[in-house]
Specification:
By secondary structure, the chain is of the alpha+beta class. The protein has four helices and 14 strands. A hairpin with a 6-residue loop joins strand 1 (49-60) and strand 2. This is Cytochrome B.
Length: 279
Amino acid sequence: MSASDKYPSESGRRRFVKGVVGGAALAGVGAMGSATVNTLTTAGGVGGGSTIAKTIAQTGGPAPRGLPQIPVQVNDDGYIEGIWPETTTITQEGQEIEVAQEELGGTTYSGAWFQYCGVESQENVQPNFESDNLFRAASGPPYDWQSNTYSGGDRIHIDDFDDYEEWGNGIGSDGVGKPAMTTWRSEDSDTNLNAIVIRSPEIEEAAQNDEWLQASTDQGFMAYLNVCTHFCCIPGYKELEESARYDAADGSYCVCHQSTYDPFTIEEALFIARPRPDE
């Protein structure tokens, strides 16, 4: 068993990895990311650059890294909301700029985690964009329970996840995690931030002994931005039987190019965040 393994493979439990991917891989990602920044963003962009993000693990396919985790909390009324970093001013290349950044669970949590695939141009990732940060049900979800419970735009509530330890939809294993397809920070915005919210006993258990998970998850709830890091498609968690062919029946599967992700393995990934437009 490697040092990064939280549990032996025969236990059937997933692993929560905290290390950064290997240096050679990072060098490749950095070079590719820099080229992307130079060719697809304007010279006036701000707030980009080398970034270490907490992500759900990329487990297969051409995607260069995992999907960025969104820290969550259950508010006093039982609604699930994402945590957005505090706005602060830093000096970058001799220029004072505003960024969304704060220390959370021993980690520097930054809005730059979400600055890729054009998301960086959206107003809802601007540091000062005003939002209640609640997760709201997306329209046309692939889960019957969600369609029967919510209309698009409804707030996601903890009471509707009472069966998370047993829930299943015939794809993969039952009781792994109950999902909802949502939008985040998208009220009063022209574009949506697509996210998956999951309540899982595996997250709940792992958070007992992990500083980051204690700070970024709540009562088994976790979330991540649902935009594939390969070609900006929208992956699906427990949506398609086809995902079993790629060992992702209990994971997130992008049908476009077969990239796969494990929401229950959290790791660090280094990448080049694209600058936001300079307004």
